[in-house]
Amino acid sequence: MILKDTYKVKNSWKYQMWAHSCLLVVLLLSVGCSAPQSAQKDKDATEHEVPRRTLSYEQQRRFNDLYLEAVRQREKNNYDASYDLLTGALELNPDASEAVFDMAILKLAQAGAFDTTLVNEGDSLLRRAVDLAPANRFYKETLANELIRRADFKGAMQLYEELAAVEPSEETLGTLMKLYEQTGNFRGAIQTINRLEDIVGPNEDLALEKFQMYISQKDDDHAYKTIEDLCAEYPNELKYRVLLGDLYFQNGHPEQAAMVYRDVLTSEPDNAFAQISMLAYYNQTHQDSLYQQMVREVVLNPQTQSDAKVEAMRGYIGTTTQKGDSLAALPLFREALDQPQADRSLAELCAYYVAALDMPVDSLAPIMNKILEVEPDYKQARLQLLQIAINQQNQKEVLRLCHEGINYSPSEIVFYYYEGATLLQQDRTEEALKVLYEGISRIDNESDKETASDMLSMLADIEHEKGRHEKAFSLYKQAADLNPNNLLCLNNYAYFLSLERRNLDQAEAMSRKTVDAEPQNSTYLDTYAWILYQNRRYQQARIYIDQTLKHTPSEEVSATLYLHAGDIYYRCGDRRKALAFWRKALNVSSDKKQRAQLRRKIQRRRP
What's the topology of domain 1-151? Predict the structure, then answer.
């Protein structure tokens, strides 16, 4: 939660810390040792300071050296060294507020979300720094902000009250107002707004804040007075007139509200605030025909602001759905989206509506295309269209979407992956290589690791097929490192290593992982059986080749699978069955080299 969205602190924490450190350096260098401070700016604060111990000249010099070095190391981001130096400084002088404060900040910065020990230590030190130097606004504000971060709003409120009592700045009072609002103390928030007005003068933002506070505490009289004053002060700002109408409506005076809305719409027919309020009036007073008529007028009027159109359609969806007609809004959406759109907001609402109706995914295509007409670089719409094209196996559309996607969103690697995959399916291998290599050059820490791994693995398959085995193995390794659960990559990597009898233990481990993950996948079982064969563990290999054949439909058994089975059975001593498998392999093989190899095996009756 951000409490300072309206009244932002002018200086960042880093600047405050830097300024604090520099001030301390100047003070310490100027006094040399333990010279007393000049007269305090705040006598009351001084009277409440915790008594400090007195250091000797040598102790003060040693403390100064340690503390200044701690500051220097911190500025160089050497936090461990800074921590050790601060520890030494605090051993010499545990009452040095500057060292206590810096140690608190270090501990809080090091504390993770669940390290309650460090959090408690940092909190305790921060409170002690405030006790040691109650006049130091920065310490107190830092503690207050830490309490806000931990949702201790009441504790933070007390500290900001103390800060405001000494120096009621716009930033301090703005934060205090938000804290009162957060804790439901609307009276306190209004009083703080009054204090702000004393500083900056009355303005629209503060008047609206006050109006909302009165509404929250159900103080209608003051709410009316505030909004009427705004109407009088800013007669050309018709939104305040609409707010007045809304107040009438909420308090049971619908006809007075309607008069206000009509008055505004007479002056400004396309006023979005009045349009939405008038729709709510028609709907809640059950004037259905007027409600539907005005929804159409708002949504189909080219002059209507997009926000108003979206709000009108959202209300219309809710109203018609409650009445049992969940499809009623669809024709109006189509009619509205046939018109030119200022932005994507109405089309996006239509997409959510269609998705909620569980309509076919393909029905989203015209909506996504409308979004891209308005905002061609909107990646999510193009990705949705890409998914639809992939489901429809529309390769031409996939290539078009990916090509445009790369132009508009060059860091999105999904577009490179699917363009490359589609080009491969069309036997355009060189074009696919170019796209895929461009894609892997875009991989960074923000990239989806699974997609990046799949792309590297696809490239590795191509490189291996082209005979560039070392390049392929390098790509397989990168893919496996990015996604250790990329089973297809692990399978292919392991299989090709086994064909060259390289790193067979590594290959076996990778292949075993695929089998454990998908114990009925015939491709993975075949690879594992073959690697066991290469490792001369023939009996185990036979178990897995049998499993492979069991889980492969007879019409899908490849010549390579029969060949593997024959070799394995031969090594297990079953030559008759080995010959039968080789003959089956010869019957289904269409590769000349493989057929010649099989004929030799059959003639020689051995591998």
Answer: 1.25.40
